[in-house]
Automatic annotation (TrEMBL):
Record keyword Transmembrane present: yes
Transmembrane segments: 15-38, 50-66, 72-90
The protein, known as: Uncharacterized protein
Keywords assigned by UniProt, alphabetized: Membrane, Transmembrane, Transmembrane helix
Highest taxon, organism lineage: Bacteria
Length: 93
């Protein structure tokens, strides 16, 4: 929990810069996950995975634009990055 708290404190201290970099980073990671998903075809399973990753990225980006609490934004960014990495790994095997 110490890593989470330390990272959140750093994110919170420089929120504007961190949020800007997070939008760029997690959007690129989400696009990579979408590419890996679509490289395996367009079955119902792949479309469900694609919908999950698209909505995760949309929620993270929208939370920043909607000026939600910093903790909520941070948690949505983390979940988006986690889902992107997970789906990249699953679809790369």
């Amino acid at each position: 929990m110490t890593l989470y708290n330390t990272t959140f404190e750093n994110f919170n201290k420089s929120y504007i810069g961190s949020a800007t970099m997070a939008i760029i980073g997690q959007s690129c990671l989400g696009a990579t996950a979408a590419m890996c998903i679509l490289a395996n075809g367009t079955s119902l399973t792949q479309m469900a995975q694609l919908a999950i990753i698209v909505f995760a990225n949309i929620f993270a980006n929208t939370s920043i634009l909607a000026q939600l609490s910093h903790k909520t934004v941070f948690n949505l960014i983390l979940s988006s990055v986690f889902l992107s990495v997970l789906l990249i790994i699953v679809n790369s095997l």
